[in-house]
Amino acid sequence: MMKLFREILIICLLGKLIACSPLASGEINDVWGHKQVATIEMAGSDSVWVCHLSMLKDTVTVPLSYFVEELEMVKLDNRDAALVSSSKTIIGKQYILVHKM
Hints:
Elements: H1 2-19, E1 38-43, E2 46-51, E3 87-91, E4 96-100
Antiparallel strand pairs: 1-2, 3-4
Signal peptide: 1-24
Keywords: Signal
Protein name: 6-bladed beta-propeller
């Protein structure tokens, strides 16, 4: 009886050691089969995403839902009623930023 108990205990301990071992570097460790290149870290009372650029080897597609809970598309309009006055406007290739002063 004691021998059987020891064998079961050894099997359980070995299983726990194997299950709790850290992943080897570069090993796939994500649900969708991609390597993890970013972590969520605390900055004061807020959580921020930190991307480890050294781990990026190729193009990575990150869903917008990882960063925002809600998105609103605003159609740009050039009517006088839609123009913003007393503002600083920064125009880039892929964005327009309007900052009221």
